[in-house]
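Data availability (excerpt). All sequences and predicted token strings are deposited with the supplementary files. A representative entry, Integrase catalytic domain-containing protein, is shown inline so that the format can be inspected without opening the archive.
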Amino acid sequence: MAGLLHSNTVIRQLKRHFAVHGIPQQLMTDNHVTSSPNYPRSNGLAERGVRSAKHLLEKCARDGSDVYAVLLNLRNTPRDGLPSPAQCLLSRRTRSLIPLVPSQLTPRVESNVQAALFALRQKGKRSHDKSARCLSPLEPGQTVRMETTCGFDKLATVSGKALQPNSYVVQSNGKAYVRNRRHLLQVPESNPINSPRSKTRRQGKETQRLRTGYRLNNTRQRMGA
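Structure token line:
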């Protein structure tokens, strides 16, 4: 298996595809300009493809179906108002176990695919923009809170913009992080999260919460008595 991970193996497999379909203008790979960490929406196309593949494999495992036959039918199926993937790539349907009349196998160039795909994406963008808002840009040296699993509880300093869209490189505790703008919250430098005033406010809220819980427990005990 170790030999399958070498770059020569990848190049050889890619050349097989290029010999059939031609040399692409752009080759998209991983570990280059990556998507924003903890923000799947920034890489929605790949995430959707992975989700569809997982769903297909799970369904084949449950039904005992042939994966390759399912893939053949999937690539022959039009969706989202667009021609099927086989029609877009080969300009015709491919023969499968589903009966077809001979005329449906006749090659025909689909000329309006790009315009239809652009219109579909614009429709999705308009739907997204109804609830979206633009976040103000950040400047190097600015203090922010970085979102973690516990909320916006980690202080960080902006180092600059990252290669990814809408992302920044921030420094926290001597470590560099790349985070989407959505995960960074501006804070006034004069009142950072770890200042004595902020700590006192948080301690006061915690004390009030404990007192409220204590009063509720005493009330329940008296009512139960």
